[in-house]
Write a structure and sequence with these properties.
Mean pLDDT: 86
CATH architecture: Orthogonal Bundle
Helix content: 40-55%
Low-confidence stretches: none
Distance between the termini: 22 Å
Oligomer: single chain
Amino acid sequence: MRLDASDIKELNLLKYYRLIRKWACKTNNLKDADLELLIYLDCKGHFTRNDFIEGVYTYSWDKPRWERLRKNGWIETWRRRNRTTMKYSVYKTSFKCKQLIKRIYRIMLGEEDLPTSDRSVFYKNKSYTDKVYNKAIDDMIKDKQR
């Protein structure tokens, strides 16, 4: 079964995308471009460093992005280069990354709500922006049409 544009519009899938993306980035210490790149790479499955470089073309320049994502556990090596039969290493997104992306999808589909507990990094009322996001989260949770 193939989805078309009207099916996605009926799901209201992108209605709260910005809010959910901001929550995911702030909670996991990611930049917006990093999160979107991880979603792209997760869709590819296994990828090489060249695939990563091709995926980065449309994002802002950030030279240490590759090492930062690997060091923080978002990208892991699936198969190492061995210099005889494998000319390059193959990578995949980590379990931590896959879980975050699945959680984003569940929130977008309305199967799960954004956390509103006191422990939530995103839900603390420290600045005006935090209060605006908190109001938006409350409105999203009350919206039964998402």
